[in-house]
Amino acid sequence: MALLEVKDIYKNFGKTKVLNGISFSLEKGEVLAIIGSSGSGKTTLLRCLNFLETANQGSISVGGKELFNASNNDTLSDEKIRENRLHFGLVFQQFNLFPQYTVLKNITLAPNLLKKDTPENIENKALDLINRVGLNEKKDFYPCQLSGGQQQRVAIARALALNPDVLCFDEPTSALDPELTGEVLKVIKSLKGSDSTMVVVTHEMDFARNVADKVIFMADGIIEEMGTPAQVFDNPKSEKTKAFLQKSNNDF
Hints:
Blueprint: E1 4-13, E2 16-26, E3 31-35, H1 42-49, E4 57-62, E5 65-69, H2 78-85, E6 88-91, H3 103-113, H4 119-132, H5 148-160, E7 166-170, H6 178-191, E8 197-201, H7 205-211, E9 214-219, E10 222-227, H8 229-234, H9 239-251
Parallel strand pairs: 3-8, 3-9, 6-7, 7-8
Antiparallel strand pairs: 1-2, 1-4, 4-5, 9-10
Helix pairs in contact: 3-4, 3-5, 4-5, 5-6
């Protein structure tokens, strides 16, 4: 059974169709890279997965449990939305750390509020995560004292602290210069094989090719092409995919 099943997701904003029937599945521990031009619907898809937007049609299931089905015509309560979001962790482009809290407090805040464990166990896990992302010496620092790459690594640790079933990244390196991009991608790559199931929206083609198990190329709100990295990058069937990859090669 797939860990994550996304079936026939549609999303409109007014008369503008943004997602037009998105379907895919992921097994536990798999990494999915989603590539495509700006405006193709990648971020909207992530926001629907994380219940920051509500799809107009389709369903989302995790671990065989249906979290959302638009055909039920049921409006999800705020409590149900919060419950559903716990299945997903989301790392944003712009870090979104709390500036008034230290690295350690940023990571422990949500687990403590949700009473996920004892405060002592929550702190110990946070310290383990801080070590895992290479920031041992920064645990008492504030976000303003960190580089962009360090802030994004804190954001990754914060997302992991809630033990999400699926960890989502929305262009996690787009706000970083090349040197800092490398350190963040290294952390994400290190999560592969640790039972972390990941959906990564990225413009880093080398990362998608070398780390992902599956690649989706989106264009105009649909999945234009989907397959292994070798299939999508080395033998694309769609003319739109070929054009996008050619442009990406020229840009980078």
